[in-house]
Amino acid sequence: MSASAARPARRRRSDLHQTRFLQPRQPAFWLYVVIVFLTASVTLAEQGFYRDISAAGWALSWVLLLVYALPVFLVVYYLDLYEREPLPLVFAALVWGAVAATTLSAIANGGWGLVVARVAGPEFAARWTAALTAPLVEETLKGIGVVLIYLIARDEVDDVMDGFVYGAVCGLGFAVVEDVFYFMSVFGGQPSGVLNGFFLRVIASGLYSHVLYTGLVGMGIGFVVSRRSDVSHARRVWVCAGLCALAVFAHFLWNSPWLDLFPAGPWTLGDWPVVFGATAVKGMPLLVFVGVAVWLARGREHRWLQATLADEVGRGGLSQGELEQLEDPGLRRRARREMRRRAGRRAATLLHRLQREQVNLAMVRSRVPDATDPALARQRAYCASLRDALQAIPGAAPAGSSAGAAGRPGVPGPLDGAG
Amino acid sequence: MDHTATTSNDPPLRPDEPLLQRRAERRWWPTLAVAGVVLVVVFGGFVTAAALSEQAGAPVTVGSSVTVQPLSGWVTADTTPVGDLPFARMTRGGGNLDVVVVPGYGGAAGDLAHDYVDRVLQQELTRLSVSDALETVTLLDGSVAQRFHYVGATDTGQSVEGEVTAVVTASGDGVVFDGWAPEGLLAFVDGDLHTMIDRAVFA
Quick check: A126 and B185 CB within 8 A? Predict the structure, then answer.
């Protein structure tokens, strides 16, 4: 096989999947742009104000929060095992949470706080405003970010896990900018105050915050938009409403004076274990719930991949061995490591690309009416061309294998030995 | 049934288009609905709070210089003159609005604000801290006032915070509005305080 013949075909990937964020024909795209543009000026002015208060404290705030946010972002992003969301859309969700949702929430919380004070009096408002206004206001405004992402790129929110990823990332953006506000305004803004704030708001309670709430809201939105084919409209709406209500209640509980087991300040070193316990009492049940929900959603994704690709085995795009490998993220990683050891970095990269396109094969299969659809045939051919290119790399194909074996059901493909 | 069939005016469907036909007319409605929700959530509180700020009870006239209309929830607690100065206190839970009139004051609003600090706040509060600069505000009837904030402690040790608005009327009388509350509560009554001060009628 000549090298030129083995080169995989190039094509525009967004034709079949991975919708772009820039969609000027979508009204939702322009609504997103206008709101983010308007609120960004407020956010930037606010950050400039904090920098003027204490440049060192402000810089330390961002450094500490990036150290926290980067791993959280990666964990959330890679939780979606089979169909990673397009990064531009994920970043759009992050920016919405950090810029638009924070600014709009600050305005809205002020207005609804006036209502609480008007209705129930200042003493009640002082104790309960944060619990009564912020959960509804903030979860709504963050959730709207996920809705806008869906309206901009409907094809990309096609599973509950997708909703979780966009929601959690939106919540992460919100949490980071809100934490900067707290570090600079409530904890004094000086480096020592910033460190205190980081300990309380991130180390002691960072697991329980906006990432979970909005992840749950995102799951609800993902459920309502992705289960049209197998769940009734009423049930989808109820499940979505239930998940959103749970997120709001968890946020309410966090902000309310209920279950307030924090020791009286100022805290000494011996109080910190109590602080950890106090935050866990309020936040751990939701963390467990979201963990179970994510585990169930991943299981559903796994079953979806199995069911969707079962018919594709032997049609050129996928072998039985490759399917088994595809279903297990650990096996996939091991196969890439083995390929790299055997045939080098380029082969491992190509194998990674093949695996990704085989997952995309499942997506295309789920979106076309039947197995003879030309789009599906093109995706199969694309996977086959990637496999051919991989086999052409010296050392990539295990000894004794042949290209033809890849397409026959039940016969291990050229890459099966890598697992 | 051919799910991918389109009318002659539709662009061709992409291979991975959802099975049912695209309905372009729906794209605007969700976006408009989202914009509506954003507007309601962000500004609905202010509109609702304004609607709830109803005038209630009889107007309170202090001296013959100013009339204040209490909002719902506020009651007149005291109208005993302080020395020879007409005075009224309205209260709502932890929030209070004191109105003091200085007949024939003659000076500027800024001077009145400074005099109030020296002759009233300094006498009544310990650990007094006053904001650095006076803020110029314009009330609904066009009167120009000077405003500042303070924190301090009463003789019982309770920390209080307040906002003073000083006005000199067209007839030369001084009027001081002192809205105050236990520390931490002022933010929850300042909307009412501003509404009552803005709507005050000067002789």
Answer: yes
